Each structure stands twice: as structure tokens, then as C-alpha cells.
Give the backbone structure.
Amino acid sequence: RLGQSSCENDEYLCGNGKCIPRSWRCNGLDECGDNTDERSCAAPPTPARVSLCPPGTLQCSDIQSTRCLPVSLRCNGARDCPDGSDEAHCPDTSCGKRLVNFYGTFASPDFFRPNRSAGTDLHCTWFLDTQ
């Protein structure tokens, strides 16, 4: 509810009077609706990562590896890096599902394939419940 003048101890009071969980403050997402939960946040330090691979390629994240792969192998369903890092953090590409998480991603099963279903149509149904 908007227009609150105070919140619970584990909540953050937005500029518009909305109470949100304190853990949502400074998470990079505007849950308040007026962006006050993302103001005055310290930017997280980003360690400088030196890549041994040329631009347009993907370096396997295994510390022992200096293997460079074409970016087309990222999220293609095959483990090309010894540590599987080329398949890590890929969106869910199943065809149709019920999604019930507040945050998340999904993509068409064909989105990452270079030939994108030559002649075969897929009909996927997604049910989104943002709670």
C-alpha cells in the first residue's frame, strides 16, 4: 500500500510511502516504483578480468583453461568448456511451463539456435504468475 509513514523493522520505506522488504534495497531493481530503493547505493566493485581471448570469443572460466570458443557455442546445450561455463546461467529454453518466481527469465527454445527450427513451428504456452 502507498502512503505509509512507517514500516516494519525488516522493511524499507520508499519515497512514495510503500513498504518493501529491506533485502530489496540496492538490488538493481525498482520495487518502489519511484526508484527510491535504488538511490544512494554504492556500486559493487567489479574486479578487472583480463581475457586471453580475442574479442568475439568466449573464454572458458576454468582458471586452468585458456580455451577460446566462438560465442555461437554459448548456451547451445552442449558442454564445450571442461568446466561447463559455456552453459552456465543460460535462460530456461523449455517449451512452455508455469513460471511462479517474482524474478526470472525465459526464452524461446529456438532463440539460441543459429538455424532456428527450419520449417518446424513450435507452439509454447507460458503461464506467468508474478505472485
About this structure: The mean pLDDT is 78. DSSP finds no helices and six strands in the chain.
